[in-house]
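Appendix B, record 7
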Amino acid sequence: MDSSSWYSKLKKPKWSPPGWLFGPVWSVLYIIIIVSFGTVFYNITSGKLPAILALPFALNLIFNFLFTPLQFALKSNVLAAIDIVLVLITLIWALAGICPVMPWIAYVNIPYLLWVLFAAALQISITLLNINKEVT
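Structure tokens (predicted):
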């Protein structure tokens, strides 16, 4: 069974958005991430910011990019739920760390933070609705 067919058969909460919404939302968010995270990494590599600030941003990118393979290639709701919580934690850590020195980075990432909060709630709900249930 392909991953889109698998995902479509999962139980989802009534407040789950339509599938077509995810692509446009993530496209906008990835532009925000590229510009803001890129600015952070540039300032770190040019010595304007301490290198330790890179850690939560780098971890956030890693966890963000792992979500799709965990959810759709491995078809693991549990791993995807753990991963999206790690995306949320590292994003909060990154924004808290950068806010005192470059507050605009934190502010511009508020849509990303709000979407990740929503995505975490959605993924945890999907995971709980489908726990111990084989989808065929």
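Remarks on this record: Residues 41 and 54 are 7 Å apart (CA to CA). Residues 20-129 form one domain.
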